[in-house]
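Complex record, two chains
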Amino acid sequence: MTAVIETEGLGKRYRKLWALAGCTLSIPAGHVVGLVGPNGAGKSTLLNLATGMLAPTTGTIEVLGNRPAAGPAQLARVGYLAQDAPLYAGLSVADHLRLGAHLNPGWDAELARRRIERLGLDPKQKAGTLSGGQRAQLALTLAVAKRPELLILDEPVASLDPLARREFLQDLMEAVAEQEVSVVLSSHLISDLERACDYVIVLVDSRVRVAGPVDELLATHHLLSGPRRDPGSLPGGLQVISASHTDVQTTLLVRTSGPVFDPAWAVSEVGLEDLVLAYMKQAARPVPGNNHRRLEVQK
Amino acid sequence: MIWLTWRQFRAQAITAAAALAAFAIVLAAAEPSLSGVYHSSGFASCHGAACTGLASTFINDLSSGGGIAGVPETPYMILYFLSVVVILIAPAIIGIFWGAPLIARELEAGTFRLTWNQSITRTRWLAVKLALIGVAAMAVTESFSLIQAWWAAPIGKAVGLGGGASIFSETRFGVFVFPTHGITPLGYAVCGFALGVTAGLLVRRAVPAMAITLAIFAAAQFITPLVRPNLFPTSQTVTTIAAAGANVSLNANPRLAFTATTVPGHPGAWIISSEGVNATGQPVSSVPAACEPLVPQTNVTHIGRGPTTSAPGPNALNNCVASHGIRVAESYQPASHYWPLQLSETGMYLALALALAGFCFWRLNRRRS
């Protein structure tokens, strides 16, 4: 399995503030990868570094085996849908497609035309008058029709209403199914990921807390509940991700490779949302020696 | 990329073309009447020495014969003035409206994230934009200049023969005429544009970048006339007061000064400075004691070669100072230095524009978004 994005000790500093520090991760190819984390985790910074919109302060990053934005060939291999789907307000839908056609040697005009038709966009309409959902879909059309090997989407649905969000993700899935393209998509809304992604990376404070295929994560995590007791008395091979206690009961989220055989515990399945939240909550506990300050990526 | 550059630049290009057309139409409409004065004054068909006098007649006719009573300046003066001002400010306008928003708008609107993620490097993106719009900037400004030069050709000819007066008194070395004619508008245009682009890239906001562009460019245009005389080595000569066409002028400090108007043997020379020197070549700054009685009591300064009204007048004083061996040392650029000076000034601004463009490329590739 090759990596689409591979970083090693990657850091980005804005003056004195580290937006991303010491980030080491590897994102495999052939997946729709959800990059999830709280605001300020460094998701946008990471994706901006991956597209070469930012240059790293420390560490290295390789995208499809090359330096990001190293040249026209590398740029052609990566499609990027930036946060808030920037478009030229004064240019029409058709103008944007012409822009794509003129600036991308691998442009798939037929695909772009079909998409615009199916989305019901008027080619003569100015991009400035499109709705948020339409803007996102036009921007996605531009990113997809250049036929990239890797599609990077930075919070693509954050500013959309729930209906537009669902339509966009649906549309994205169809586009991905048509082409063989790896996707990395960031979001802080886990429900979005559940619908779209088959691989999840939880990023908190520049650190990968958990990463893996969604099926595998769901299969290896269990919710245990039983009479209140000390988590230390659990059988071996169980890793406790989170624990909550009431007066009489203890609920644990555990990770294990095998099944849990302990009659004292009631074992149940865990949803992706609970799983991700547990890892984020785990990370929220103060880590000694980590006093970097974070900030959201600047626009 | 050429298509995108054109698509984004289209509105500005149309505006510029309209401005250029309006400028050409106004001057072309005024040309027949200017030509009429040119012919009726006799200056158009003059020969030899008669031309100097007829040049003055022509300029006087232009200045006074507009035929509109109660208007202080004639239409020709207004047109001449405005047409020169248009050429003078065109590079600043280009810097403000073409240059400053070029990158700043993309940064403000976030659209750089769209364009810089197409299969094209930032270097190429900027190179195409700078080249195409830079050439357009030069073409537009030079067109203004050529149209004006065509229209004002008789005026330029008359001024060159010494017939200049009032607003039409600037030779082609003049502070307003030199930077608006020849090839200097090319340098100013491309530099104004590059300055705007650089300001936009650094400030990242279009409107402040526009203000900064205007301020810096205005300062550059103010400073340039001060360095212009030294852009090419000056020539020196020492000649008599009469040959220099000078008058003694009496200032507070130095008391004795001269304003030379001609350089013997160098018609059309640009006189940069003139001062009194004695027989050994030392500067003289005071009126010889013997000539003091001839100094007029009321008027402190005498400039120009007007007829003497009452003795003791300027001529008597001139003659007295001259008889004490005082001559005029002139520093000047001969007429033949016009094009070398034009080339130097244009080259200076082109080099500045290239340096700014180079900085933009470097900054764009090094940058943080």
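Note: Residues 235-333 of chain B form one domain.
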